[in-house]
Amino acid sequence: MSRHLRLGVNIDHVATVRNARGGPHPDPLRAAKLAAQAGADGITAHLREDRRHIRDEDIARLATGIDLPLNLEMAATEEMLAIALRHRPHAACIVPEKRTEVTTEGGLDAVGGFAHLERFAQELGAAGIRVSLFVDPEPAQLDAARALGAPVVELHTGAYCEAEGAAREAELERIVRAAAHAEAIGLECHAGHGLSYETVGPVAAIPTIVELNIGHFLVGEAIFGGLYSAIQRMRACMKQARGIVGA
Ligand SMILES: CC(=O)[C@@H](O)[C@H](O)COP(=O)(O)O
Ligand SMILES: NCC(=O)COP(=O)(O)O
After folding, report:
1. Is 46 a catalytic residue?
2. pLDDT at residue 210 in the model
3. Which positions bind 1-deoxy-D-xylulose 5-phosphate (predicted)?
4. Which of 31, 48, 64, 169 lies in disulfide reach of 14, CB 3.0 to 4.6 Å?
C-alpha cells in the first residue's frame, strides 16, 4: 500500500461565501493556491448545473491557474461534458445531482444508469481525463464502474459521517469492504463527503484508499483558524491514521 494518502481540497464553499455578496471576494483560485502551499495534493471543484457555488469562469481560471491536478466534479450532462472537454482537467468525477438537494445526497447509480454513463466515461477517458465515479460503497456499483472503464471510484462517505455509534461503525464497515473490493477488481479508490477531524481517521486508515476529497468542513474551520491551518491539521489527522511518524 502507498502510505501517502492524497488530500484533494474542495473549494466549492469558498465560492458559496463569495456568491453571497455577488462580488469577487473570497476568490476560489486564491483558496486553491493557498491549499497548495498548505500541502494539498489536488483541488476539487464541483460545477453544479445550477451554478450555486463554482461558476464556469472559476473552472477556466483553475484549469490554468494552479500547479496542482484539478478534479472537476460534474453531472453526466451534455453541457458538463463539453465544459470538461474544453478545459481538460486532470480528472473528472461524475456525480449525481438533484436540483433541490442541499448537498450530494447519495452516490451515482452506475448500475441503473449504465447505458447513459457509457458515452460520458468513454469520451472523457478518450480525452485523457481520468474518470472517477462518485458511488455509494456498494460492490455492485464498483463492478459497474469497472465495466464502464472508469479507472477510479470515489466512495461517498456522507452516510458514515452522519451516523452515530453502532450505525456509524456499520457504515464504516461498508466502506472498508467496498475499498477492498475496489482493489480486488483493479479500481483506484478515493473517498469523500462530509469528512471532518472527527470522522477522517478511520477512513484514512483504510490502506486501499489513496485519496480523500474534503471541502465543506475545511472551509468552515477556516473561519476560526484560517484555511492553511485547517488543511495542515487535516493532513496531520490523515498521517496519524496512516501510521506516519511525526504527524
Ligand atoms: C460531490 C461532493 O460531495 C461535493 O462536490 C459536494 O457535493 C460539494 O458540496 P455541495 O454538495 O454542497 O455542492
Ligand atoms: N467529493 C467530495 C468532496 O469533494 C468534498 O465533499 P465535502 O467535504 O465538501 O462534503
Report:
1. yes
2. 98
3. 12-13, 48, 53, 103
4. 31
CA distance 177 to 139: 8
pLDDT value of residue 246: 62
Beta-bridge mates of residue 42: 8
Distances, alpha carbon 197 to alpha carbons 43, 114, 211, 231, in Å = 19, 35, 16, 10
As a whole number of angstroms, the distance between CA 15 and CA 102 comes to 15
Quote the ligand 1 centre to 245 CA distance (angstroms): 32
pTM of the model: 0.96
User: Which ligand has its closest atom nearest to the C-alpha of 53?
Assistant: 1
Distance between CA 113 and CA 150 in Å, rounded? 14
**Does the annotation mark 190 as catalytic?**
no
- What separation in Å is there between the alpha carbon of 134 and the centre of ligand 1? 11
Nearest residue by C-alpha to atom 11 in ligand 1 = 103
> Pick the catalytic residue: 87, 138, 193, 211?
193
Q: What letter does residue 69 receive in the DSSP assignment?
A: P
Q: Supply the pLDDT for residue 2.
A: 66
- For residue 172, the Cα-to-chain-centroid distance in whole angstroms is 18
pLDDT at 102 (0 to 100): 87
Contact of 179 with 189, CB cutoff 8 Å:
yes
Rounded-to-integer distance, Cα 221 and Cα 101, Å: 23
CB atoms within 10 A of CB 103: 10
- Residues in the chain predicted with pLDDT less than 50, given as ranges, are 247
Q: How far is the CA of 106 from the centre of ligand 1 (A)?
A: 10
Residue 41 near residue 8, CB atoms below 8 Å:
yes
Query: Which amino acid is residue 24, in one-letter code?
Result: P
Strand-pairing partners, residue 8, are: 42, 213
193 is catalytic: yes
